Known about the structure:
Helix content: 40-55%
Number of strands: 9
Strand order of the largest sheet: 1-2-3-4-6-9
Number of helices: 10
Strand content: 5-15%
Number of domains: 2
Amino acid sequence: MLDKTFECFQVEIIDKIAHIRLSRGDALNTMTKAFWNELPEIVREIDRKALARVIVISSTGKHFSAGMDLSVFGGDGVSGKAADRHIAAEQFRSNIKQIQSSFNALEEARMPVLIACQGGVIGGAIDMISAGDIRWCTKDAWFCIQETKIAMTADVGTFPRLQRYISEGWVKEMAYTGRKLGAAKAKEIGLVNDVYDTHEEMMEAVMATAREIASKSPLTVTGCKVMINYGRDHSTADTLDYVGVWNAGMLPPAHMQEAFTAKMEKREPEFPDLAPLRDTPL
């Protein structure tokens, strides 16, 4: 189990649901260096050890997150000489790839990642929520690709992921202008599934959805996530072939029988959890 204390997050696992909370509300939940290290550590341990069937990410304070903390932009000691600018550029690219991997962990996790937002969802927070599976927000929420306002191109996942959920036109308007997108419009264009009056109402609904997902066969839910993610990046023909191969190897007759039997007996079905993964390849 996750039994350590984190600087940027609170983590609890109850009834097969892992709830990860951004815990620096007083500091607008900015994404410090600790944030980028802790998030993938938490998510990958939950995934690797199969500690939960669903991951819920929420936040504390007025805003979900104000995005990248300025401390992350600090230099790493590379010489400023003109002759070294290419070396510095390569280092910067490599550092960006490490940061990108923190949010990749959300997409790569075998279990669904549900995200609940309130207040500002700014800059890097857009990158973050784009890597989740389903998003909700409160009516006071607003979304902003902040990087444009500081003369920077968003680089941690917003562009390749966001346009899978909303139209290219909306992505471009948000990116080119840096405007705030309100909660109602976010629902209208499909960025979030629903909008709630209060944080309490939102969390009640999100946790209800998490419990419903957790009651299903974890192997089947994982299969759904794999196929949906695969399908958005491949042709229909390739995806149909892949789902056929998946079901040929992993269609669980015993789980199906349990689902049918539980329905007939008017009880909740009982399914095995996913198996833990190796800590190392061998």
